Amino acid sequence: MRYILSILFLSSLFFASSQENKIKAYLDSKQFFAPEAGNYIEIYLQFAGSSVKFVPANDGLQARVSITFEVLKNDSVIKTDAYLLESPLIKDSIIDDFYEVKRFVLEPGEYDLRIVLVDINNPKSKTGGKQKIIVEDFKTNPSISDIEVAEYAYESEQENNFVKSGYHIIPLISNYYPADLTKIPAYFEVYNSEKIGDSIVGIVQKILNDDTEAELEDFATFTRVQPAPIIPFFKKMDISKLPSGNYRMEVILTDRKLNPIAKNSYSFQRSSDLEIEFNPENIVLDPAFQNTITEDSVFHYLESLIPIAKPAEIKNIIATYKTKDKEKSRKHIQAFWVQTANKESYDSWLKYKRQVQQAEQMYRTNYQQGFETDRGRVFLKYGAPNNILSKETSPSEYPYEIWTYNKIGKFSNKRFVFYNPDLVNNAYRLLHSDMLGELKNPAWQQTLNKRNTVNGDIDNPNKFNEDHWGGNSNDYFRQY
Length: 480
Fold this sequence. Notes:
CATH architecture of the domain at 1-139: Sandwich
Number of strands: 25
Distance between the termini: 27 Å
Shape: globular
Low-confidence stretches: 1-19, 456-461, 464-470
CATH topology of the domain at 1-139: Immunoglobulin-like
Radius of gyration: 25 Å
C-alpha cells in the first residue's frame, strides 16, 4: 500500500466524550503525480447525509459543512485550508450522502493529516481526526499511482476536483463488494513508461486470493499501450463470477518481454451468492488427520467450521450435516482444511480444534455450543482479542463486554460489544461492532441501557443514554 489509510469513521474513532448529532464522515486518500505540479495527495470525504442538518435553500434543502485541513510534518503545519462546503440541492425528501475531494501537492515523505468538520446548521456537531499518510516519489522512475475505485464514473469535459483525464469519478471509499456489485471500476495512472526504452509496454490487471496468494486465471487482462510520461487508465473489472473471499487486485507495468517494472494493488472483500462445488467422492481420507476426530465428535467439528466458512461454503456444510453421513462429514472436514490451508492443513486443523475446545469451555450455554454463540464465533473467526473489558454489575446497563483487537488483517483498532439481556445462561449477544461485515448498531447504547432507561426518539435514539450515573459504556468503547 502506498498510504497508511483505510476506511475511517471519524465520529466514532476520535472522540471519547459524548456529543449529540455529530457529523459522520468516511475518509480515504490516494497519491498521484502531475508534471506541472509534482506528487500530490487526493483526500476523499464521504458525508453521511443523515448525520447533517438540511435547511431550506433555493426551493430545496441544503446542508453546509465547514472543513479545515492541516498537513503536518514533524508536528509543524506545512499546508492548510479551510472553507465551507455546500451539499447538492435536494428537491425531494430523499437525503443522500455527498462527497468532497481535496488535493495537496507534497514532497515525498511522511505526514500527518488533520481534519476538523462542523455542521454550520448544528454547531455542536464538531468532529475530526488525524491520520498518517506517506508520499512516494513518482517523478523519476517508472511507477503506478494508487488505484482509485469509483462508485460511479462518466466521461466529462468539466474541470473540477472530481475530474481526471476526462473522467468524472465519484470515489468508492468502502472496499466491500456485496453480491449486487458486479464490477470494480478502477482508475490509475502509469508514469515514466517511456524511460523503459521499449516502443510498446504492457499493463496487466489481475486478481489474487489475499489469503492464499493464488492467482485467479479467469480474472487477468493484458493491454498494450504506447509509452508516455503519463498514461491514464480506466477499466471496469467484472467480478460477477468471483466467489466470496478476500482478494487483491494488482496492476503491473511490464516491458515488451512481459518483465514486471512497477506495480500497485487494491485489496477488497467479496460476498457472493455463487455456489462452491463440493464433491466428497474425490477425497482420500488421511488416517493421521482422521485420528484426531473421534466418532462421537464428527458432526460437532463439521458444524464448528461455520464461523470461519464463506457463505457458499456454509451451505455445503449444512447440506453435508443434514445427511448424517459420518464418512462424508469426515471428508468434508478434511477437504475444508486442504482448501483453506493447503500444505499446512493438518497443523491448521489442530490449531483450530484447540480453539473450538476453548470456545466450548468459555462461551457455551445450556442451549448453545461454544462455536454457536456470538462470542464463540468472533473468537474463532478473528482469534483472541487483545483486550476484554467486562462489566457484570453496571447499575444502568445490562452486563456487557467490549472486545478490542489491535489488528484484524489489514484493519486496526476494531471493537465488538456483547451484552447479556437475559441476565442468565452466559448468553452474551453481539450488539455492535465497527468491523467491516459485522453488525453495526448506531443505537447500541439505547439497547444496552434498556435495563432501566427510557428510550430516546427517532432522531436521536441515544438521547437519554449519555449522561446518567453509571453509564460508561460509550467512554469505554472509545477508549479501549
